[in-house]
Prior knowledge:
By secondary structure, this protein is α/β, with parallel strands linked by helices.
Amino acid sequence: MDKSKLVQIGHSDVYATPLGLGTNAVGGYNLFPDLKDEDGRALVRAGLDNGITLLDTAYVYGLGHSEELVGQVLKDYDRSKVVVATKGAQDFSSGQQVINNRPEFLTKQVDQSLQRLQTDYLDIFYIHFPDHDTPKAEAVGALQRLKEAGKIRAIGISNFSLDQIKEANADSYVDVVEDEFSLLHQDHLTEGMLDYLHDHQISFVPYFPLASGLLTGKYDHHVDFPADDIRSQIADFQEPRFSQARQAVDIIRPIAAAHQATVAQVVLAWYIQNPLISVVIPGAKHAEQVKANAQAMKITLSTEEYQIINQAFAGFKNTTSGKSLADPD
């Protein structure tokens, strides 16, 4: 792909398509019920075969299994043309999950991710969550040493508050931040995080961009999810927020029809055109969803259409519910 259509990740030499693939449903058996490995591999292939270059995985997606499945597919592609991003910070050595940002633990996490992904470098490694004790700049310093050693190409942090981001970026080593952001969760606009990232040439990658399916337009009535489905824990699916979101989504439908596109494709196109967003990473359960999402890179919204969507979701800019899911302690 023409590099002019790619997005530079922070200060690094990593360039990615503006739409990637979130892979929590690739091997994430601890997050979703009834996942099959072959379906997961098919999701990854569908992304790479339809112009997506960035794959976003994490150790905690299946406790390494997502990384393993991504690695199996990678062997069939030109590694130099794929941007592999993974995340780590979950320490299960005590038998319980503990968030650990100590330099020696993060170094071990990177080495283990390299083995599971069957590659000799990671394009992006994120500290998945901040811990309570490790100085943030010290944790990022460990990643900088790994970057200098050639094991990672770009340094990321995820789920850090604005103050924690500033501390982590004390030496200007941070290239990219990943956090929840969507038309339904725009808190980072009002609290100044996105402005800080933009001013410091730090890329922003939002997760849950389709709000676990709520922004696809497929929900036209209340739905009860089983207890083992992650959506059962998400505030967006509770009233009155659920109905408010559906009303806002209805405003997008005429725009989608004008582009002969789906609501989801138009929402993704809005993110791609948002100057504060670098790469949007929708997940998917089926290969056809991945192919459809990739088509969003071909949609150009008019200024008026972009602003109509802005206005439809203006009431969600400073939510009281905060994140969809609680951070692990």
